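so i finally got all the pieces together for this one. its two components total, 616 residues if u count the protein bits. some of the lines might not be protein, just check the labels. i wanna see the whole assembly predicted at once instead of chain by chain like last time, that was a mess tbh
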Amino acid sequence: MTRRVLLGLVDQAVEGLTATGASTGASTGASTGASGSPGEGDARSAVTRRALLAALARTTGSALAAAYGASLLAACGTQGPDAARPLLRAAQRRNEEVERWLLRHTRMGAPLDRATDAPAGAAFPSYHVAPAVPVWDAAADGPWALEVGGLVARPLRLSLDALQRLPRVAQRVNHYCVEGWLATATWHGVRVRDLARLAGARLTGPGATARYVDFRSFDVERPTAVQPDAKRAPGADAGAAGGAPHAPAGGAVPTGASARLADLRAGRDYHESWDIESALHPQTIVAYGRDGHLLTAAGGAPARLHSPIKLGYKNTKYLTRVLFTAERTGGFWSDQGYEWYGGT
Amino acid sequence: MSSPPVDAPEPRRARRHHPVVRLTHWIAAAALVVMAGSGLQIFNAYPRFRARGAPPFPLWPWEGTPAPKWATVGGWLAGGRHWHFAMMWVLVATGLVYLAWIYLHGEWRDLVPRRGDARDAWQMVRFYLGARPDHPVQGKHNALQKLTYFALPLVGALCVASGVAIWKPVTLGWLTALFGGYVWARWWHFAAMLLLAAMAAVHVVMVFAVDPYALRAMTTGGHDPALSPEARNARPFHHLLPRWRDWRTRADLAPAGEAAAPRAARTPGATP
């Protein structure tokens, strides 16, 4: 049907071009070609039509191929068309559902990689967002303490000593960075799950319940250290040996640029919020030691979050507060475009 | 215009490639380009395989060399990840639709290797190299094509499995362990991508070198058997070479019968 209509249109075009006045009622399909024998009356029309159709087919094919190739080329080296953003965000939400389902439905001992479970030792990279390695200034800010608060029955303030007196975990696990590297270490610390129990985190019951946990830090990005229009990988500007060679794109900040500028002026505290299931996973710990020693300043002293079930950037270093919240509170890298979930 | 012979062996025009095959082909082509580009963007954040503190990785001599910027998609690491993790569903869905279609329509029979295909593939290699004058007889695809198109879903499955192993090295730790750990899963993923890219590159080169008409067949479905490589006795770049190369192409190797004569005259280099 469509084909008949199209052929009619083509015929009219041919007629208009050649003005032969030949009958256009011929039912001979142009593409049946030599097998059909065209009538004398519209032989000329059929031939012209066939030629035109062939030319059209050739040119449209090439044009389509060129457009296709050009669109693919245009995608290279950029973040892609703006129209794709909602689709990418939708895909990220779907992926998060898949990831959370996987986390709930798989048995995890987080087995160590057989081939690569050599301790990273001194080769463990140390990333921070402050211009220099953050060090807790006890003279200015008083002694360091870890606050556990938010939707809890008993807010806690734990000194490093108090933290070390809590039930201790030592686990040798992998650390997966978003950049693609892997580093193995033994971590010493306290399960977040134990802290939640100790503080009486409101996990069930009527009213607001803790569905997320925000891990905040005294690692603060200062305005002098940032380039507002540059995108970086977590740790791209860190002073670590063998740091990420990821080159930032020159692209503009995609969304919320003004809000971000306000953040930049104030300086942003590093933090990342987690889903409650991942935070309460038995391998998610507030670590104060690595490989048998207390954390170094570069390693996130006095305490940091660590878990093999989240990508590195979700594991807040230089920890100050553990806040149980009802709402999702984003994070330093999540707000800039990295996946909020960031699970492994 | 002479009347066509009554016993014409085949219609001059035929249809080739079901719309489902054509559609999945081009969607997969676009998705593969995006997947490779965004994958290289991710790779460039850490363009090496060795774990931190581990000895050098044995099977990758270019540790630390990033992919060129023009080959990347996504602009930055997070952008590359978003494209990669969105397009993977498109690619997997397209692949599954294609596999389901060729299974339900029996077209898998055209692709599954059979006894003698290795020998036929060797004959195709000889033909392409000019050691054999005539194009070997083939079905829908020649033996080399068959092996390639059969291997394609397998390499694709390797890509998907190793990719999932990198994506979920803890929740799906058993899969990662199957590949020998996270570092090796990354390597497998990269190697499978390189293999796919190589196959795609050869595929594209051969389309233009041997049978540019295949572009039409894969886009609109239009197919002219007289223009197929077998009928044209086409070697790579044959149609681009000057005519003195055609000393091997003799009239007795052209398709027999008067029906072929007018077509053969249009074929570059065929001696009437």
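Chain B has nine helices and two strands.
The two ends of chain B are 19 Å apart (CA to CA).
anyway lmk what u think
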